[in-house]
Amino acid sequence: MARIDVVVDDVSLDAPTLVEGLPGVGLVGKIVADHLVSTFEMDYYAGVHCEGVPQAAVYRGERSSLRPPVRLHADEERDLLVLQSDVPVSPAEATEFAACITGWLDANDVTPLYLSGLPDQSEKVPEVYGVSTGGGERLLDDAGIVPPAEGGLVSGPTGALLYHAGRNDLDSVGLIAETNPQFPDPEAARAVIDGGVEPIVGIEVDTDALVDQAEEIQDARERLAKQMQQADDESSQAEPLRMFQ
């Protein structure tokens, strides 16, 4: 049965913000989520058992307890949740996955920040753009985040999450970062944190390590990046809409 199982009862959250970290182009969301969980030493809060999540078990070094591959971590002090994923969500079941997540967010008064990469192979500093549903536009305006200059779409599971947020009139924000489409991009992840997550959530995050350890990050995630490239339809990404006349 599709559900989200909260595993702790001593964490109290008041209208928290969620940062989504599903694997996508450039692994931007994945890197952001992993960095937040590590930096703030966030507590394992809930297992995500929605349709589309592979039935796999995750183990950690020097620990015997297993965790689901997609899970929520919480920081009570910052009223912050992070959706961390070690596997791609099946695109064929993205609709069911998004409905499961959205229902739980709505019931628990959670405002989600959904992350996606916009393929860009230039050498310039990545730009971060914002889209929204419900009252999310106010959050973007307050943070000074502008929409993309060109129309486009967000695909994959992250696109389904944004679609369901809109259908349910849920306040949500989509942060779209220019990113290298071929390799993990910690620079784009840092841009998302500095220019999006920090001003919207109202927190400070040390991101120097993301760039200092870029080579280590790339080595650790190279296998997952190749998997995402080979299964292109599994990758959440933003892309321009091509207009035909």
TrEMBL record:
Pfam families xrefs: PAC2
User: Which InterPro entries does the annotation name?
Assistant: Proteasome_assmbl_chaperone_2, PSMG2_sf
Chain segments carrying region Disordered: 224-245
Task: List the Gene3D superfamilies hit by this protein, alphabetically.
Answer: PAC-like subunit
Name of the protein this chain belongs to = 3-isopropylmalate dehydratase
The species this protein belongs to is Halococcus saccharolyticus DSM 5350
